[in-house]
Q: What sequence folds into this?
């Protein structure tokens, strides 16, 4: 199975219906809400790095 791309990761988050609240407000889209988007962006960068040939060895492994 191949690693997800950034776009696939973000799309998978948008499909979720999380039960997350911040200051009494429900967060509908974790990819766009100010309280969560920076964390999501940080994780998305890891997906970007995994696709880079120079870094792919750090993000992947082979199961024996």
A:
């Amino acid at each position: 199975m191949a690693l997800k791309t950034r776009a696939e990761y973000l799309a998978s988050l948008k499909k979720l219906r999380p039960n997350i609240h911040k200051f009494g407000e429900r967060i509908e889209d974790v990819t766009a809400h100010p309280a969560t988007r920076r964390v999501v962006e940080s994780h998305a960068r890891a997906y970007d790095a995994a696709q880079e040939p120079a870094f792919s060895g750090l993000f992947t492994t082979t199961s024996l």
